[in-house]
Amino acid sequence: MATQELQEQPRRNTPESRRGPGSVSPGISYDLSASAASAVRRTTGLLRRHKLLIGAVIVVGTGLAALVAFRMTPLYTAETLIMVEHRKNTVLNFEGVVSDMTPDISALQSEVAILKSPAFAEKVVAKLKLMSDPEFNASLRPPPPGWVSALNPRNWIPDSWKHGNDVPLSPEEIERNHMTSVVNAVLDNTSVRPQGRSYVIAVSFDSEDPRKASLIANTMADLYLVDQLDEKFKASKRATQWLEERLTDLRKEAQTTGDAVEKYRTQHGLTTSSNNESTVVGQQLSQLNADYILARTKRQEAETKLRDVTAMANSPRGASAVGDVMGSPLIQALREREVDLQRQIADATNRYGSKHPMLQALQSQLRDLQGQIKADVGKIVSNLSNEVELAKGREQGLKASLDQAEAKQNEQQQATVGLRTLERDANTAQSMYEALLTRSQQIAAQTDMRQPDARVVSEAAIPLDPSQPNRKLILLLALVTSGTLGVLLAMLRERSDGGFRSPHQFEMATGVRSLGIVPRIPRFGGSPAAYVVDKPISAFAESMQNLRTSLLLANPDGRHRVILFSSSVPGEGKSSVAAAFARTCANAGQRTILVDCDLRRKSLHEMLGMSNGRGLSEVLAGTATLEEVIQVDPRTGLHVIPAGHGRTLPQDTLGSSGMHQLLSRLSVNYDRIVLDSPPVLAVSEGKLLAALADQTVFIVRWGMTKRGTAMAGLKEVIEAGGEVVGVLFSQVDTRRHAQYEFPDSGRYHGYRRYYAN
């Protein structure tokens, strides 16, 4: 709120406030090149302002890096190249137990992982006996010097914190931990990487001994090839062992299933014929079926013949028809004899009459002949009836046999289903046995022809120059890093700067105009009050002249004669500036009097080399007259009223009417009445004096007074009714001030040849 009030109050009549809403501030630049140049100047100024800090960080950082780099043990790197074979061996045209590696990206990365695996590194450690090498086994190294151990941050941690609750380990576990640490040390010094988009893998190893580096790198390559063959051999061995066990089981299974098939076939009468196409029952059924059909045909023929003969026998023709049908010679002969007798009877009847004994004898012969024919026809019919019965019996017998054979065949067909299942099981077992037997023979044939999927294309030579540490690179990186860190620290320091670095900053923040800056006098230049007289053409003296001129321009009619020098807190150089300004005015011929109003910390008399017997306190208390306390500076003719030794409270003394009357009296006799005020934030007298003074010069120490503190002090003065004519920056380092990009940067320092400092 204080900042906002200070900004709003004095800017109501500024030229910027009178511009229209559409006007463009002349202080704003839209030139990108100018903005870039300004940024470059600001950066350059930042580096110049903090060059000591940046230089110190660079020197310390680079020095430490150099110390570490030259104390590092040099390491030698040996590299061997392994190419993964992408051409396939076609000597064996059957598939191997472990398929040949396809050298794509994933396969190469897998091989890299194998070369970087702890198990592979453990083989290298075991082969080269690196457990007894102090370079990798830390327990075999001699202890470092005491000062080196003291510098190691790990040794700063108590052992109880590092170990905690340790679990007791057996000797085997301790030995295993040692092996693990050695393996990790080997892996830390190992680098495995593919060479671009090729099939080549580069294996490099770092060691303190160049011969050892070459040996370990070549050993890794050899063990890698041996490991490939070993894994393939182990895989073939495991496959062969499994196949042998499986072959034994399949051989037993094939034999068992084959025996089951034969036993089942025998039990169910499923024995096949010589051509293995049909069973015995099937053949019998076929024969019976043919016999049955033939018997049925004969039976039908016999029945037909019997039916025809019977019908003919009962026909008018009788025996003649039967004889014709049957073709019996006997019937035909008897029939011819009958015809002959009938002819003879007819002749005898015509010749001898019906009663002739010859005719009767012929008729008797005819009757006997016809009886014989009839008897023969009866026999024929009887024989045919017997043949029909025999045919029926034979047909029925064959039918029974056929039905029995069909029933047996149905049983065998049902049994054949089970037989086919057993035969399939037997064939499957036999096929699996034969396939595994063939595979076993293939694996046995390829075991002796196994080759690795990689080869060494370049063995590691003994390195002549160390690869680590790269001292030049370390120093360069340290230089760049420390420089960057220095710049960052400078920026952080710049950002954390809580003070004002220019009156322009103060004016932008509060609206109070600037009265200039007061350069810091040299370290051995004495007090400012003496320096302004001893060095009248110095930059410090010129700043006092500039302040005097600014106050004259601010008071053209000369009515404002009482000038108060005030500040927020002690140590801002307020008293020194007041004394130097008073001497400057007196030396210029103005009647000037300097009044020490800081009754708590009396210091003006010491700066001017005067006594403090009686002073302002005694005048206001009425124990001394004004003429008795005024002292004259012999070098400039400046009149001085010291603080004196009053016993009353300072605020009561300075706030009395006597103080007002004293200032009115002095205004009649002097052109300048310079008041040295105590800090307004420390005590209350400063605000009382601000209300009595015609003009107040507010002092801010350059870069030291906090911004909030300075603005709070200014607010106290304004609220007390003080007429703040401007702000004056004291103890300014002109060299550093010139490095900032402010409108007043470079003042005094940029023109230092004009001054005799």
TrEMBL record:
Region described as Disordered: spans on this chain: 1-27
Gene3D superfamilies: P-loop containing nucleotide triphosphate hydrolases
Residue ranges occupied by any Polysaccharide chain length determinant N-terminal domain in the UniProt entry: 45-128
Biased composition (Basic and acidic residues): 8-19
Keywords: ATP-binding, Cell inner membrane, Cell membrane, Coiled coil, Kinase, Membrane, Nucleotide-binding, Transferase, Transmembrane, Transmembrane helix, Tyrosine-protein kinase
Entry keyword Oxidoreductase: no
Family, similarity comment: Belongs to the etk/wzc family.
Residues in Tyrosine-protein kinase G-rich domain copies: 413-494
Protein name according to UniProt: non-specific protein-tyrosine kinase
Record field: transmembrane: 52-70
MF GO annotations: protein tyrosine kinase activity
Domain AAA: 561-718
PANTHER family reported for this sequence: FERRIC ENTEROBACTIN TRANSPORT PROTEIN FEPE, TYROSINE-PROTEIN KINASE
Keyword presence, Oxidoreductase: no
Entry GO CC: plasma membrane
Name of the top EC class for this enzyme: transferase
E.C. number(s) listed in UniProt: 2.7.10.2
